[in-house]
Amino acid sequence: MSSHSLIRSAIVDLGSNSVRLVVFEGRERNPVIIFNEKATLRLGSGLDTTKRLNPKGVALAEGVFKRFYAVATTMGADPFMVLATAAVRDATDGQEFINKLQSWMPNVPIHILTGEQEADYAAAGVLCSISNADGVVADIGGGSMELVQLCGQQRFNAQTLPLGVIRLMDRSEKKISKAKSIVTKDLKTVEWIEEVKKKNLYLVGGAFRAMAQLYMEYTSYPLSIVHYYTLPYDEAKRMVEWTIEKSKGGINDIPIFIHKRLNDLPYAATVLGQLLARMRPEKIIFCAEGVREGWYMRNVVSEAACNQDPQEAAALDISERLGRVKEFPLALMQWTSDLFKNETVEMKRLRWNACLISDSGCHDHPAYRKEQSYLRILCMAGMAFDHPTRAFLALTTAMRYEAGVDEGFLSSAKKILTHKQFEQAIVLGMAFRVAYTLSGNLPSLLLRTRLKVGKKKLSLYFSQHLDAVISDAVTRRLSRLGQLMGLETQLLSDEEELKNKIS
After folding, report:
1. Domains in the chain, please, with CATH?
2. pLDDT one-digit tens code per residue, 105-133
3. What residues contact residue 27 under an 8 Å CB cut-off, 6+ apart?
């Protein structure tokens, strides 16, 4: 058991629709969730009319919070905190409810967030995994929606609006046409939104995620992971229109996890539709990280860890947990440095992360290694990788473990990646295959050879006394790599190279 596995922290996110307990393990840059449980209380239902919390939700709350308290304290979570949002913030009996909550969860700090604080935590949650986010975060809950501008890892212009799905349902008397007018009017109060037109829109909150999940099912999207699901502006408009239209007649055959959100979907879609009309963002990006992860980043993770690149931190964690020789990824990075001409900064970053995870299947059974390694990376928990990065790294790892280009299980990568990205992943994975075969995972042995890409030839140079390690398997795999790159291959000792230069 690793030492960090004993370090746990917990947050209870008390919203207008649901309450959720999340327990994190460790203090790493990317949150590792070991417990995640939600209860639907709908405390904000009727709030706009009565100004009080939903009595049915209050009645259910005691059992839920006592359970959450028992789980988190038994796990030894520290820090352990409750964050209450719009319903408790706005209800006239909000403090009365907090007093009950303190009796159910003794010695647990409870904070009622202002709208601006809630927006700030949501923004920090988005930056947790999307560190280069540039645009607007829209975090929709049951009672409110928070908007906040992001640029250069800084947060600006936080604003809260009474546009949570439950409150909007109540304010509009369950009429979508009226809801649209309300949203349009409320968004006009956000004067700074004109400054962020054409930028990205990052969507946080359960109602937005449910809409994405349903649309992914409808379009047969190849990956069932909402986080980082990205749509261009025109496709986002189609999703909004489709969601509202389908909701009119009832949506059949929906996934079980959508059922509790079904009534909220047309209101979430209405809010998104008006945001699209005001911003005309280049693309929308769904984010599964929000207030809870923002709290984690602010209260648990060290400043040094916060400043790490989230993708590199995730890949390093995989390397440390699953790899065998910690020095090998750096040697592999150096050995493949000549593989791609005019390599972009982004491609270099991908190659480094691929090097880090390249040995992640070493403990799998050989008969299942290629597919298991592929699925591990493609479907891994954690939020650091966007979908193309997941697919690229998964494909590269599968090829390193001798997958064939036409294997059926690689179909998801083919759908997600561009043709160029797919080819680059294949080439890099095949290069890894040569490197591991040649070196036996020994950095010193690998770096006594060199891979050189010329105009017509792919050359592997080695010291003359390394003849014994140049096996038939190395030759075959180098030849296969050359074929993929459209190059002839040759094996040359350093001495032979020198003679060729002299002659």
Report:
1. 3-112 (3.30.420.40), 116-292 (3.30.420.150), 310-502 (1.10.3210.10)
2. 999 999 999 999 999 999 999 999 898 99
3. 4, 7, 300, 301, 302, 305
